[in-house]
Amino acid sequence: METSNQCPMCTLEEIIENDTQRECVTCGHEWEVAAVVKDAFGNVLSPGDIVQMIKDKPIKGSSKMLKCGMKSKPIRLVDGDHPISCKMDGLAIGLKPQFVKKVF
After folding, report:
1. What's the pLDDT tens digit per position in 57-74?
2. What pLDDT was estimated at residue 82?
3. In what order do the strands lie in the sheet with 21-24?
4. Could you tell me the residue ranges of all domains in the chain?
5. Cβ pair 23, 13 in contact under 8 A
6. I want to staple 24 with a disulfide (CB 3.0 to 4.6 A). Which of 7, 12, 19, 99 is the partner?
């Protein structure tokens, strides 16, 4: 993830920023900015983190339920409306970040 406000091609700081993309005014190079995923309490999530459910949620198409306090295996971050991909209770699922908290 790009942390500075410099173009990776020409290293000048004259850039135009959008929500997901940046463009260098000088050389015209365009690059995407990685989205930051935060849990329900504002902690930044990274791939490999462990998360814990903060609310009971039913699993669609199943009689199982994700209980409050249930912990995941290490997570992956993906694009889409469910940016957290992980395994909980033996099931591979996608979660929304507002229903989890990062386990330290």
Report:
1. 998 888 889 999 999 999
2. 94
3. 15-17, 21-24, 30-32
4. 1-34, 50-103
5. no
6. 7
State the Cα–Cα distance between residues 37 and 87, nearest whole angstrom.
Answer: 18
Two tokens at 76?
Answer: 């992956």
The CATH classification number of 50-103 equals 2.30.30.40
Q: Which residues of the chain are modeled with pLDDT < 70?
A: 1-4
Residues in the chain: 104
What tokens were used for 97? 């970040």
Query: Which residues is 6 bridged to in the sheet?
Result: none
pTM score: 0.70
Give residue 61's region: left, alpha or beta (phi > 0; psi -120 to 50): left
Residue 62 CB: number of other CB atoms within 10 A?
A: 9
CB 38 within 8 A of CB 57: no
Hey, what are 36's tokens? 């930051």
- Residues 34 and 32: their CA atoms lie apart, in Å, by 6
* 95 φ/ψ angles, rounded to the nearest 5 degrees: -125, 155
Cβ atoms of residues 19 and 79 within 8 Å: no
